[in-house]
C-alpha cells in the first residue's frame, strides 16, 4: 500500500492582530508516524482514516462527539516494537498553538530520529489551533472538548490497542508552548495518570500579570477555534475552572513526579510578541519553581538564551530523563 500523508485540515484565516494572541503557541516547527495494529474502535472513538503502512509511525483520524471535526493522532513506535513482544512506557507529546500548528508538528521537527533506538512509545495527538488542552466554557462552532478527547477517550484507547504500561509509572506527558501548559495541567488534574511532566516554554501561571495567559487563551481560542467562544469565559472568567487548571495553584499535585522545565531569557532580536510571550512564560515558571522549592518538591529547570522556541537539545535531555523515570520496556 502506498503511504499517504494525513489530510491537513483547512487553515483558518487569521483575524487582524491574531499573531500576538497566538504567539504563546506559535513556533510549532515540528514530522511522520507508525503504530501497532490497532484493534477496532471504542472509548467514544471511531476510526475514519488510518495509515499503518510505516513500520514505526502510525496515523489515525477519529470521529468523536467530544470534537466537532475529526482530530488526528500519530503514534510513534520503538524500532523493535513489531518483533520484541515487550511492553513499553508511553510519552504523550503535545504541540503548541497557532494557525499552522497541529499533530504533525513534532513529526516535521524530527521526532522519529530523536527517538531512534529508544524504548518508548510517543503519542502525538491533535490539540486544535488554540484548544489549550481544555473543554471550553463556550463554543460557537460545535464541540471542542480537547480535555475529554485526550484523557477520557484517547488515553484508554492507546492502552487498549498497544502494548503499554497502563499505569502511573508507565506514562509521561510533555509539550511545547500551549502544549507545555497542557502537560502541566493534565499532570496535576489527573495525578495518577503521569509520573513525569515536562513544559518546554510552557506557561505555569495563569493569573500573574493581570491574567495575561488567561487572556491569551481566551482571545486566541475565540479567533482560531471557537468562533467567538472562549476557554475560560469572557468578560468574566469561570474562576473555579481557572484555579483547577492553574499549575501554581496545584503545587501538591506535582509531588513524587519528575518535573522538567525550560524557558527562554531573551538575548537576541526576535519579533516583539514572541519575546513578550516568553517573558510571561519565564516569569510564570519562576513563580512555579519558587512554590515547588517551598513545598520541597524537586525539579529540573533550564533558562536558556532566546525567546519562544523549541530547543531540541533540551528535549533530547528530557527524553532520556523520561525513559529513566518510567517503567522499563
UniProtKB/TrEMBL annotation:
Keyword tags = Acyltransferase, Signal, Transferase
Q: Where is the signal peptide?
A: 1-31
Top-level lineage group: Bacteria
Keyword Signal carried by entry = yes
Pfam families found in the cross-reference section? Esterase
Record EC number: 2.3.1.122, 2.3.1.20
Entry's family note: Belongs to the mycobacterial A85 antigen family.
**Know the name of this protein?**
Acyl-CoA:diacylglycerol acyltransferase
| Organism, scientific name | Streptomyces gelaticus
